[in-house]
């Protein structure tokens, strides 16, 4: 994070849902589905002010990154930016 900020980048920290606590069904067979745990999505920037985010889902990650980069979202993307505009 520090190296990115030192070089003028906006840093995004996020993760997949994970499923370590729910890896197996009671009968011992693998459970490949994601858990329902919330996923962090943190935007860190040197820009003045604070980036405010609304709740969303994984489909909203790419549109949010595109907005931060100043790029238009392709119409094929169904997600929306998580950034709350003033």
Would you mind describing this structure in some detail?
- This protein is α+β, with helices and mostly antiparallel strands.
- It has one domain (2-69).
- The chain has 2 helices and 2 strands, in the order αββα.
- The chain has a two-stranded antiparallel ribbon.
- The two termini are 26 Å apart.
- 5% of the residues are buried.
- The model has no long low-confidence stretch (mean pLDDT 86).
Structure keywords:
single chain, alpha+beta, 2 strands, two-stranded antiparallel sheet, 2 helices, 16% helix, 86 residues
Topology of helices and strands:
Elements: H1 2-6, E1 11-14, E2 41-44, H2 61-69
Antiparallel strand pairs: 1-2
Summarize, please.
With 86 residues, the chain is α+β, with helices and mostly antiparallel strands. The protein has 2 helices and 2 strands; from the N terminus they run H-E-E-H.
Strand order of the largest sheet: 1-2
Helix vs. strand class: alpha+beta
| Residue-averaged pLDDT | 86
Helical content class:
10-25%
Shape: elongated
Low-confidence stretches: none
Beta-strand percent range = 5-15%
Supply the number of helical segments: 2
Termini gap: 26 Å
Q: What order do the SSEs take from the amino end to the carboxyl end, as H and E?
A: HEEH
Report the count of strand segments. 2
